[in-house]
Amino acid sequence: MKRITAGVTFVALIAIIFGCASDIILEEPESLKGVYKGRYIVTELSGDYSIERKQTIDWVFDDVNFHMDIDTLSLNWNRDFCVCNYGGPYISDEKVRLVVSSHLAPGYPGCVACDERLEPVGYFVLEQSTDTLKLSYLDEQNNYLKEILLIRVTE
After folding, report:
1. pLDDT of residue 59
2. pLDDT tens digit string along 87-99?
3. pLDDT of residue 85
4. Which residues contact 38 (CB under 8 A, 6 or more apart)?
5. In sequence order, which residues have a C-beta less than 8 Å from that of residue 103 and are 6 or more positions away?
6. Cα dihedral: 29, 33, 37, 42 (round 10)
7. What mean pLDDT, rounded, does the chain reach?
């Protein structure tokens, strides 16, 4: 009797495992496509101290490219943080890969040259909710933590 009960239990367990596999539906990640406002934050990690720089930005994701513009109309832009307006392709998978293919003019007057170490390039970890995005990247040398905090703009 124990053998019959064990056999029935085993068959039932196998049926449940394989029968439910087709019922699992994986949702596609929400599209990044849209217009955003937010902040670009770069923290320089150097031994015993760190320097955090924040810049107010406008950001656009289309189907294959991104574009970041410095928001010079905001009262919160940092004149000491010399970053350019950037653009280029992106790939969204487990992480979001940003590739800068265009360095546009510095984002504001007085910014003479853009610092390539501060470019938003790399494989960013994505945290996403309905209308907010957080992209984070720590470079291979652990010198710079780059964060892009965005809120979707309703059009």
Report:
1. 95
2. 999 999 889 999 9
3. 83
4. 56, 57, 59, 133, 148, 149, 150, 151
5. 84, 86, 114, 119
6. 60
7. 79
CATH 2.40.128 for domain 34-152, yes or no, is: yes
Above 70 in pLDDT, residue 80? no
Distance CA 36, CA 28 (A): 21
pLDDT at position 146 is: 95
Which stretches of 11-143 are assigned E, i.e. beta strand? 34-46, 49-61, 65-70, 84-92, 96-98, 102-106, 122-128, 132-138
Sorted by sequence, the CB contacts under 8 Å of residue 78 that are 6+ apart come out as 53, 54, 55
What the block records as the tokens of 137 is 């990247």
DSSP reduced 3-state for 68:
strand
- Give the start-to-end residue ranges of the domains of the chain: 34-152
CB 98 within 8 A of CB 90: yes
> Model pTM?
0.74
Do 91 and 66 contact (CB within 8 A), yes or no?
no
